Amino acid sequence: MPAGKFIKNKNIQWNAKWIWEHGIQDRTFSYVCFRKKFDIEKVPPLAVLYITANNNYHAFLNGKRIGTGPAFSQSRFKRFESYNTGALLKEGVNCLSVIVHHYDENDSVNPEYKGLLCQIDIHGKTVCVSDSTWKTFSCRAYHQEPRVKMGYTFWPEFFDARSYPHGWTECDFNDDLWQSAVPVKKAFDEFWQCEQSQARVFPWINLISSELEPLKYTRRIPVEIITEGEVIEKMQPSSHDTAIRMSIEQILPLEKASIQNSKALLNNTAPVVVCGSDLREKTETFDGIRDATLILDFGRIINARLGFRISSQSGAMIDIGYSNRLEGKRIVPYVSCQTPMADQYTASEGEQTWQGFHWRQFRYIQLTFRNSSGGIKIHELWAEQVEYPFILKGGFECNDSLLNCAVNAARFSTELNVVDHTMDNATRERRYHVGDCTAHLWSIWSFFGNCGIVERYLRHAEETRQICGGYERAAGLRGVVIDSDWEFPSVIYEHYMLYGNKELLEEMWPGLELLARFIESCIEKDGTIISVPYLQYYDWADVRRNKHNFLLNAYAAHALQNICMIFRELNIDKSLNRRLEIVEVLRQALREKWYDSSRGVFLDNPYDAGEENHISEHSNSYAIYSGIASHEQIVSICNMYEKHPGIFAEANAGWKCFPLALLKAGRVDLFIRWAYSHFGKWFDSGIDTVAECWSMYGETTPGHWRTRNSRAQAQAAGVVGLPFALLTELCGIQVLEPGCRIMRFAPNPGGLKSFKGILPIKDGACSLTYRRDGKKQHIDIKVPDIVNSIVIDLPSYSSNDLITIHGKKTEHDEMHLMPYGQQVHRLRISGKKSLAIVLTDNK
Q1: Can you say whether the dihedral through the CA atoms of 673, 675, 681, 684 is positive or negative?
Q2: Domains in the chain, CATH or no CATH each
Q3: Least C-beta-crowded within 10 Å: which of 438, 509, 773, 781?
Q4: Predicted confidence (pLDDT) per residue in 111-160, tens digit
C-alpha cells in the first residue's frame, strides 16, 4: 500500500530536469528503473516529493512505496503529485527509486514523450533532483514489445522475475553496473533535418499540481473458490496468446495435477501448494501435460492490482486471466481481439513477491500454473483495490424494487469508472471522451455532489479544446468530435446552478465563445445545419448523422442556448441577442420542418432519401428534454409511444434524455415501463451494474442496438439517465436560482406509493420524502441553511394533504387566487422565520 502522504502544493520552483535512460531514446514501450542516493543530517517532519512521469510511475523511498501516478491529463497540461515523505526518511543515506512505464508517443490513449521529473524539498531547500547523476536500468523483466493490447486501456503485463533487479529500491543495492541518466532530448526529424516541435506530446509546456483527492487503497482477498481443476497444455506457453489459450482450454477435474489446502486462499492463513502433472509420467498413460488451475471470486467488480507472495522453482509460470462475469463455472479472458484480459508471471528461484504495475477491472480471476511439476507454494494472494474517495451524499429509493436496483447499479457503475479521471469505461476504454464523460456528471451530482473530480473534469475538458472551438475526442486522442461534445455547455450551466461557482464560469467563457462561433459558422442560409467539418460520432444514437439530421441541429440549439445563459450570468452582452435569435430560428425550424403532424412525432432525417421515415426515441426525447417540442407535440409523442412503441428506434439505458423527457411530460407510467424494459433482463440475470450497449450506427453501418461480450459490464456513460431524472423530475427537486438560494419541489409520484430523494447541493443536500396513504399525501422537505426560499408545486393538492418542513407541520399564512384558477398559498413553520415557503396548486 502507498506509504507517502498525498498533499496539494501549487507553489514550487522546479530545479529538476527531465531525464531518461541513456542511449535508447527511440525505443517505445519501456519500463525503466531510476534511483538516486542522497544524504540528510536530520529527519524533518515535512519533506515534499514533487513528481511526474510519462506515462506512469511507482515511486519508492528506502524500499517503501510512496505513491503511484501521475493523474491522467491532457499532454500539454501535465499533472504532478506532491507527497510528504518525512516519515519515510532516515538520518544519513536515503534512496529515492522510481520505475516508469512509457508506452509510445503515438499511443492513442495518451500520447506523450518519455521522461521522469522529480525533486524533494525540505524547508524550501531542494535536497534531491532528477538529473544526470541518477542511475538507470531498462527493466527487462517486463516484456518490452507486447503484440497484444487491452483495447484502449492498457497492455498485458508479461513479467519474468528472473530478469528483475530484486532489492533495487533499497539503499544497499549495488547499482555500479547501471548507466547514468541523460536529459531528455527532442526527437530529431530525419526528413526536415531538425529537432521536432514537441507541442503535441512534450508534457512540460504546463506543469499543474494534481487537483485530485488522495485515492483510496484497500487490500482485498477472494471470498469464494469457483473452480479448481486442471487443463491440458495444447502448445508451448507463450506471452503472445495467454488470453486465447486460457479461454479455449477445457477445465477438467483434478486428476494428475493437484491443489492442496486451496481454502486457505480465502484468509491467507496457510500456504497453498499447487503441482502440475509429473513430467516423467509413463508413455502408456501420458495424454498431455496437466496444469492446475483455480478460479477465484472477489465478491464484486473492483479496480485493483493483483498481487501474491509465492515460493517456486525458477521458470514456473502463472497465467492470470481476468473477467467481470462467469460463463458457467469458468471465465473467458479473451473477450475480443481488442480486449485480451490476461497477464503472465514467470517465477525466479525461491520466495518472491509480485504485484501488477497497472490496475485491472475484474471480479473473477483464473490462475493457471505452468511448468509447476516441482510445486508452487502460495503464501498470500490479494488484490489492492484503488478507488476515488467518493462520499455518498445523495440518492433515491422507492417502493419499486427494480427502480431501486437500477439506481444502485448506476451508483456502482459510476464508482467503477472514476479513479484518477472519469473514463468511458474501465474495462476496455479508459479514454477521456468529452461527450461520454459529460454523462458521468449527472450521476456524480446525484450521489456525491460537487466532489473534486467534477471540476477537474470540466477543466480537463476545456484543456482539450482546439483553436476551432471544438474539443479533442479525448485527452490524448487527436481529432475533434462534434455532436456529443456539444452537450458540454449544458453541464457547465447545470453545475453552476447547483453550486454557484461563478469563478468557474469566468474561467470557461473564452472557450465557450470559440464554441459558439464554431456553431454559428456551421449554420446555413436557411438557419439550420446540414453538415459540419468534423466527425459526428454519437454512438449512443440509432440515428444517421449525415445531412439534415434532427439531433445535430437540436444539439446546436441547446448548446447555444446554454452558452447564452452562461454569458448572461457573467453580464457579457456581446452578440447575446443575436445568438438567442439564432437559437429560436433553429428551434422553430425543428418544430415545423422535422415534425410529422400526421403521426405526431419528430423525424430524424426527413429530407434524406431512405431515411425520411426513420423515427427514434433519441430525437423525440431530446425534443422534449431541451424544450423544442410544444405542449401539444409532447402530448402527441407520449401518446404514440404508449400505443405504438415499436415505431421508435430504441435508445439504450444510457440515453439520459429519454427518462428525463417522460418524467418532464408527467408520464411516470411510461417511464416505469421504459425502466422495466431496459433494466429488467439485466437484473434478472444477476448483473448489478449498467452494461455497455450501443448502436451499430456508431460504426457508420446500418444497425441496431447490441451488447456483446467485448463490451463492458460497467459503463459509466450508460447510467446517467436514471438517478438525476428521478431526483429532479420524479421527486421534483429543482434549482431556481444559482447556488440554490431558491429551490422548487414538484413531486410527480404517478403510481408510486412512496419514495425519497436526496440531491446534494452547495453546503448540504435537499431531500423530499413522499408517502401516499389512500387519498392523503404526506410530503416532508429538508433543506440546508443556504436555501432561503422554497416553492412547493403540487398538481393535486387538498386540505387533507400533510406538508412538513424538517418534520414540522406547515400552517397557512395567506392565499392568493391567480389567473386560470391556480391557488398560491404562503406557508409558515414555527421557528423558521427566515424561510419563505410558497405552495402552488396547479390543478
Answers
A1: negative
A2: 5-140+161-212 (2.60.120.260), 217-387 (2.60.120.260), 395-728 (1.50.10.10), 731-841 (2.60.420.10)
A3: 773
A4: 677 899 999 999 989 999 999 999 999 999 998 665 555 556 667 899 99
pLDDT given for residue 271 in this prediction: 95
How many CA atoms lie within 13 Å of 110's alpha carbon, on the beta-carbon side? 28
Are 688 and 695 in contact by the 8 Å Cβ rule? The answer is no
d(Cα 689, Cα 412) in Å, to the nearest integer?
A: 6
In 10 A of CB 333, how many CB atoms?
26
Which amino acid is located at 231 in the chain?
V
What integer pLDDT is reported at residue 25 of this predicted model? 53
- DSSP H or E run through 641: helix 631-643
In this structure, what C-alpha cell is assigned to residue 777? 399525501
SS (H, E, C) 692-725: CCEEHHHHCCCCCEECCCCCCCCCHHHCCHHHHH
How far is 343 from 160, CA to CA, in rounded Å? Answer: 11
CB neighbours of 830 closer than 8 A, spacing ≥ 6? 808
| Rg from Cα positions in the chain | 30
Q: Which pLDDT tens digit goes with each residue over 810-830?
A: 876 655 444 444 556 666 666
Q: How far apart are the first and last CA of the chain?
A: 60
- The C-alpha atoms of residue 617 and residue 574 are separated, in whole angstroms, by 36
Backbone angles phi, psi at 356, to 5 degrees: -60, 150
Helix (H, G, I), strand (E, B) or coil at 485: helix
Cα angle value 546/558/412 (rounded, 5°): 90
**What is residue 151's predicted lDDT score, i.e. its pLDDT?**
55
266 burial type by CB count under 10 A (0-12 exposed, 13-18 middle, 19+ buried): middle
> Rounded to whole angstroms, how far apart are CA atoms 759 and 396?
9
Kindly state the average pLDDT of the residues 562-590. Answer: 94
Q: Which residues contact 481 (CB under 8 A, 6 or more apart)?
A: 433, 434, 435, 470, 471, 472, 473, 534, 535, 536, 537
